[in-house]
Write a structure and sequence with these properties.
By secondary structure, this protein is of the alpha/beta class. About 50% of the residues lie in helices and about 10% in strands. The chain has 16 helices and 10 strands. The chain binds zinc ion. The site of zinc ion has 7 residues, from loops. Zinc ion binds next to loops.
């Protein structure tokens, strides 16, 4: 069901067959109503894309289709009698490879062409339709950060924008130029959803930027969005989090920025959501003191997203089990894939990746904590053999299904990881807020 504006966790179910059991057990044990989802711009894709060989590896890189995760999750939650919300997360405008690089910290200056924007909108609508066809989806998050315009301000340019709100200060006008196009496209997708579905939740993602979100930026986006008569439950700012990395910045500064953003969001009737929630390891949360700072700044009313950390955990467990071969194959083939990317100057050969691969070359022992692997092992789920089989994805699922001891270990560890998030961010018992 659509949960509305209550504090709650979001967890990514990249491998529904393996992750649903532990996650739902944790939600149930903690009387927590939470969201399950996958990112539409990266992690999942329409069935037709997942079933066809030859699409870019970053597109739907979990090998789990929109239809698969929505139907499996809704069935599993019903069987366990747990209240969940199902989200179509990160509908992304722009290319999937640009989007995966963005979350890894590489921001391309390349502008996206009108042609690309148009085909991206079409692709997103196709994804929305597949999600709606399952009748299981309740919530949508849109990320149009590829359209945030960094160009210089000009009065002429400002006058040509189609804005509904009234803006007078230079700061507002600069924000208008930066965000107007993104807002137009988000509105287009929002209306595509609202024409077909009455009751749904909505989130605007502002976090995939190089800089932290400024107060006036969030204020502008929400003001214009509301002026257009559109709803938004959550808004995700950039507060300086990096994917798969603990927050090591100044905690006081984090708390202050978050409090200011939270006040703005509240003034427009929305709550904050935090993306890139995974830390450096599956046991580090987001670094010491980070959860506490967010709780204080938001008065405990927040939404928080994690996803990649579950797959890191699975590889860690595989490496310590009798299925270590599956981990080693993922390790070797991810390294091999990245070497090829670098040699061919492929799309994923960023400076960071080159450095990570160089560091791994001299190591004799293969560890799931090795940087290149932590940051790129998500690709392994989408590696295929000659027959088109996703051999690592299937290797994990088979180990889980055929080895009762391994399954028990995975269920226990996935539940514990989810419960650390729930307890750490004070989500226990949130189901009491639900309107019945
Ligand atoms: Zn995001």
């Amino acid at each position: 069901m659509y949960l509305g504006k209550i504090p709650h966790p979001y967890t990514g179910i990249r491998l529904p067959d393996v992750l649903l059991e532990g996650i739902l057990n944790s939600y149930k044990a903690n009387s927590t109503a939470g969201t399950l989802g996958l990112s539409f711009g990266r992690e999942t894709a329409p069935e037709e894309v997942v079933n066809t060989h030859g699409y870019p590896i970053t597109l739907g890189h979990t090998g789990t289709s929109i239809k698969e995760y929505l139907t499996k999750a809704s069935r599993a939650a019903q069987e366990k009698d747990v209240v969940i919300e199902l989200e179509a997360d990160h509908l992304i405008i722009g290319s999937s490879s640009m989007a995966v690089k963005r979350i890894a910290g590489t921001f391309e200056k390349k502008r996206i062409s009108e042609e690309e924007i148009k085909s991206s909108i079409e692709y997103n609508k196709k994804e929305i339709n597949e999600a709606l066809s399952t009748e299981a989806v309740d919530f949508f998050t849109i990320d149009a950060s590829a359209l945030f315009d960094q160009k210089e301000y000009s009065e002429d340019k400002f006058r040509r924008l189609n804005l509904v709100g009234e803006y007078e200060t230079p700061a507002e006008k600069r924000c208008a130029i930066k965000f107007a196009r993104a807002i137009d496209v988000m509105q287009d997708l929002y209306e595509c959803i609202s024409r077909k579905k009455e009751n749904f939740g909505f989130e605007i993602s502002l976090d995939e930027t190089k800089e932290r979100t400024a107060i006036e930026e969030m204020d502008f986006v929400l003001k214009e969005w509301r002026a257009r008569g559109l709803d938004v439950d959550f808004v995700a700012p950039n507060v300086g989090f990096r994917k798969r990395t603990d927050f090591t910045g100044d905690l006081i500064e984090l708390e202050e920025l978050t409090r200011d953003l939270n006040n703005i969001a509240g003034r427009h009737g929305s709550l904050l959501c935090f993306h890139s929630g995974s830390g450096t390891s599956s046991y580090s949360d987001k670094g010491k003191g980070t959860y506490e700072a967010l709780l204080k700044a938001t008065n405990k009313k927040l939404k928080y997203k994690i996803s990649g950390v579950y797959i890191e955990l699975i590889f860690e467990l595989l490496s310590r089990s009798r299925h270590r071969g599956v981990f080693e194959r993922a390790y070797n083939d991810t390294l091999g894939f990245l070497r090829e990317e670098i040699k061919n100057r492929g799309e994923l050969a960023t400076e960071e990746v080159k450095e990570q691969v160089k560091n791994a070359e001299n190591k004799s022992e293969k560890s799931p904590g090795e940087e290149f692997f932590r940051f790129n092992s998500y690709l392994a789920l989408n590696f295929r053999d000659e027959s088109g089989k996703r051999y690592i994805r299937e290797g994990i699922i088979n180990a889980y299904k055929e080895d009762e001891t391994f399954k028990e270990l995975v269920d226990k560890e996935v539940e514990a990881l989810t419960s650390r998030l729930i307890v750490g961010l004070n989500f226990q018992g949130n189901a009491r807020y639900l309107k019945t």
